[in-house]
Every structure is written in C-alpha cells, then in structure tokens.
Amino acid sequence: MSRTVGVTERDANADLVEPIREYVTDEETHENAPAVVVRADEVQAVLSTLKTEAGLDHCACVTAQEYADRFETIYHLRSYDDPTRELSVVVPTTSDHPHSESAAPVYRTAEWHEREAYDLLGIEYDDHPDLRRILLPETWQGHPLSRDYDQDQPQIVTFREHQHLLEDRRTGPDTMHLNIGPHHPSTHGVLHLNVELDGEQVVGVDPDIGFIHRCEEQMCESGTYRHQIMPYPDRWDWSGAGLANEWAYARAAEDLADIDVPEYAQVIRTMCAEFSRMLGHLLAFGTYALDVVGEFNAVWQYAVRDRELIQGILEDLTGQRLMFNYFRLGGVAWDLPEPREPFLEKIYAFLDSLPEKVREFHDLVTNNEILQMRTVDTGYLSPETARAYGCTGPVARGSGVDYDLRRDDPYGYYDRLDWDVVTKDGGDNFARLLVRLQEVEQSARIVEQCADLLAEWPEEDREIQSNVPRTLRPDPDTEIYRAVESAKGELGIYIRSDGTDTPARFKIRGPSFSHVQTFPAMAEGEYVADLVATLGSLDPIMGDVDR
Known about the structure:
It is a peripheral membrane protein. Residues 299-547 form the NADH-quinone oxidoreductase subunit D domain. Keywords: Cell membrane, Membrane, Multifunctional enzyme, NAD, Oxidoreductase, Transport. It comes from Haloarcula nitratireducens. The chain is an alpha+beta fold. The chain has 17 helices and 15 strands. It has helices at 7-12, 43-53, 110-121, 159-166, 216-221, 242-257, 263-292, 297-318, 340-366, 369-375, 383-388, 393-397, 405-408, 429-456, 511-523, 528-538, 542-546, and strands at 24-29, 34-38, 58-66, 70-78, 86-94, 99-101, 124-126, 176-180, 192-198, 201-208, 327-328, 331-332, 479-485, 490-496, 505-509. The strands form 5 sheets. A 5-stranded mixed beta sheet has the order 1-2-5-4-3, covered by helices on one side. Strands 8-9-10 form a 3-stranded antiparallel beta sheet. α6 (242-257) packs antiparallel against α7 (263-292). The chain is globular and about 65 Å long. The two termini are 30 Å apart.
C-alpha cells in the first residue's frame, strides 16, 4: 500500500507551530504537513525560530506561485534527523508589488530558489544577497510565469542594457577571468562557470545555469494527472535514473488523490528504482575517472559495459533503455516479461558478477595513487555547509549527513528489506566517490531481495495496478509536497490542484539544483584542477538543475 500521511501524522507535526504561534496569521492543511501563513516582513524571524527551536534545519524546497489576488512563496521545511517532521511556511504578498523578506540569511539554499521565483514570477526578496535572474538571460523582459506577462513582446534590448555584461568583472588587477563551458566535457552538461583565477588558484566561481531550461513544470501543468505527466520525469535525468523520477511524481499524485498501490507493484517499483540508482552511479563513476585521470578510458568502458547489462534488463521489463515511462499511478504498466524464469536468471547473473567488478573498480580507481592525490582533501564540504545548502544524496552522505528518504521517510518496499545507508565522514571528493561505489553494492542487495520476492509471489496475487479512475480531479486547493531518494538525492514534487484534471501548480525540486549552488563554497581557494574534480564529484545533471 502507498504511504499516505494521515491526520495522526499531521497532528504529530502540529507541535512545530508552537514556537512561532505569535507570528501565524492563518493555518492551512497540506496533505503532507501542516502549513502556516505568516507576514511577508516577518519571514526571517519565523524561519530562524523554526530552525533553532523546532529543529527544522532543512529547507527542502521553495515554491512560488501566483493567484488571482496575490503572489505566494512556500518554504517547505524538514528536519535532517527526521524528514517526516515537516512544516510549510506560506508567505502571501500583494499582486501590485510582490515583495517579502528573503530566507537566504537563514537557509543559504533559499538564495537560488528565490532567484528563480524572482526570475519567473517577479517576486522581490528584501535582504537577498544577489537578487538577479538565474534561468533566463539578465536582459530578459518581464517574468514569464506572471499572469500579466506578454508572450508576444520582443526580447530585443538596447546596447546600454547589454553593456554591463561586457564590463570587466575581475575582482582585482592581478586576477584572470576564465569561462568554462557551457559546452565543455568537464561541466557534465550545458553549465557555464564564471571563474576568477589568481594564478592557478580559484578566488571566485559563479555558476551560470539555464541553458537547457525546457519549461518542464509548465508542461506538466498542461498535462492530465492520469496519462500525460508520467512521460516527462524520465527527461529530468538522462543518466538512466528516470524510474526514480517517475516514482517522485507517482508518490505525490497518489497521495494527493488517495490512490493505493498493491504490494506486488511496490516490489517491482523498488527493484526498478535501485537499478536506476546503479545506472546513475556507474555513469558518475565512469565519467569521474575521465575527469580526474584522463587516460582512464578503460574505467569508462567498464562502467558503460555494466550499465549496458542493466539497461538490457530494464529494456526487457519496460521496453525502453532510458526514457522508460513504466510507472503508472496506482502501480506499474505491466508485469515481468514471460517466461519469468529467464528474466529473473538474467538479473541473478548480473548480481553474481557484480562483486568482482566492484573490486576491480576499487583496484583501478579508488586505490590509484594519482586519483587519491587529486581527490583526498579537495572539494571539502563540511556537514554544516551541506545542510545550509540543502544538500542530499551522496553529496550530503559523503559529508557524514546520515539522511536517506528510503529509510527516514519510507515508501515502496524499502522498510521491509535488509540494506544499509552508506555515509562517509571525509567530506571531500574521495568520500563522495566511495559513497556512490558502495551504494551500488547496497542497491544490488535490494535488487536481489526484490527478485527473490517476485520469484516466489503467488500468481493469483500478482496485482500490478490498483483500480484508478480514468480521470483524476483532486479537490480544489489541495496541496502536497512529496519526495523520493533518487540517485542524486532528494527529488521532490509540489502539486496544487484546482479541481480540474491538470495541476494548477507543479514544482520540481531537483537535487542537483542545490548541489551546483554549493559548488563555489567547495571550489574557492583551491586550484583550477581541483575545480574540475570537485564539480565531477557533485555528479550534476543539468536537466535536473534547469528543468
């Protein structure tokens, strides 16, 4: 059965409101957590109190949206120690001049989220350290998600408005400005880095994103819950981790519409998600060997070889190799291929061969002195900084932050299986590399247990999908934030319904968005060669960043 937050759990989180009771002007009911409405000029006081007194130290996501009479910013707060302790802080502002206090002085990760809200909706945030556009060019006219946006207006501006982009941005007379990307093999996609160098030492980095922004949220808002949204999540992460992305949408929509999922389908989903995690980590591992020790083509080829085996298994199951579109609301599209025995034997054969391959990866890469010299004690990320920037997944666990939604906010079949969360205390590039490689082994443990369950499941109980209405129309103004543990980290979805069969607001919280934001804090003060190794250790996917 799917895990739906009920009244009891929301009541358990009601105590989170007490420290800020004096600031609350209204209360709302979101499906995942209680929600409070606060004044736009008291945001920092509210969030500081929740962080220090209620222990809500994780700003998971920030959602901005416009109603007919107001703009609204929602801060989705959770606890790193227990993500089921969560609270939504709703900040309404006027339509004529939307502005409120910035949350960035309290949660550093809110800086980029608020820049996105300003860029797309025009909400201004007082005390924001760097309120400028983030996805669109700085010369863009208007805010595309606002109701009064003129889609037909020309985007041609005078040279005077362009001029500041051409000015010398050097921080001093002895530094050099270096552009890396957006088309560069070490940027892992279309990412542009404005780098300031003092000799070979990095004194400043400004990540420039938005080159592959494809309006995924708006496309989902124009699609129906039941049939038209599910093909999109695969495209947010083309490393092969799309099945976990599909689960993120499914988990949010199923809880929103109160849809159950049969246990048999949950086992299949869990197996698929772990195969996706292995696909993502193997690609990260293979490309990292190229980034750091360039002549390591063999490691890249070995990683791709093992990915091909997994892709073959998933192709047998889903019919696709990358854009799977296999999950459905209420379950999965179809059962295991028939005959079942050869398919399961293919899985077991891959799992039997994996331990030797992992040992080989350790011999070639993690035990390599050159790689160790370039990754140990470089790209350091402290646990405090990781939390401040909202880091999750291997990036956070490589800094000793023991946070994994599969265990801490259980869904699927994870809480009934035997596996371990991998953490390392190093906080450097090497620690993040080790976390991913060891997580491949843990994923294999989970896949094997799922395969055993599927092999023994009684034929008469193999229910792949619950009875879901052809058209879903959740009640108007129903709101939910739900997340899963993707290969990159916490992948969250916020949905607000308006009573129709399409969402009124669909917000994607990509884990790589927070990780790329963290990059300057890790790279500044190190050498330009370390910059490449640090970026690769974050394993960003730009479709996950730009959306």
